[in-house]
Amino acid sequence: MAVPEILAALADETRRTILAKLKEGPINTGDLAEYLGVSPQALSYHLAKLKKADLIYETRRKNFIYYELNLTVLDEAILWITQLRKEPPYEK
Q1: Which of 32, 47, 73, 91 has the fewest Cβ atoms nearer than 10 Å?
Q2: In a domain, 88, yes or no
Q3: pLDDT tens readout for residues 16-70
C-alpha cells in the first residue's frame, strides 16, 4: 500500500466525491463526468490520481470504461489509520 498516494488522493474533495459515487456501484466515465459537472480532461486527471493510489480500478465493456472502488486498498488504508489511534504499549 502506498500511503502517500492514498492520502494525496483523499485530500481532494472532488476525488472524495468520486469515491462516494462509486460506493453506489460501477459507473462509466461519461456518466461520472456528468454527475460531477466536470470536463472529461478534469475527470481524467482525478481518475489518474485515484488509480495511482490503487483506490479504483477500471473495466472495459464494449466502448465504455467503468470505474469501481478497490475495497481491498480502502480496507488496508482504514486499518493503517486505525493503528495510528491505538496507544503504544506501556513500557517500564
Answers
A1: 91
A2: no
A3: 999 999 999 999 999 999 999 999 899 999 999 999 999 999 999 999 999 999 9
**Secondary structure E strands in 7-48:** 27-28
Cell of 46: 482525478
Q: How far apart are CA 32 and CA 1, in angstroms?
A: 26
Strands (E), the chain: 27-28, 56-61, 64-69
Domain that holds residue 69: 3-83
| Cβ atoms of 45 and 33 closer than 8 Å | no
- Position 89 in a domain: no
C-alpha cell at 40: 472529461
Overall number of domains in the chain: 1
The answer to whether residue 91 sits within a structural domain is: no
pTM: predicted TM-score of the whole model, two decimal places: 0.83
Q: How far is CA 42 from the centre of its chain?
A: 15
Domain-embedded: residue 46:
yes
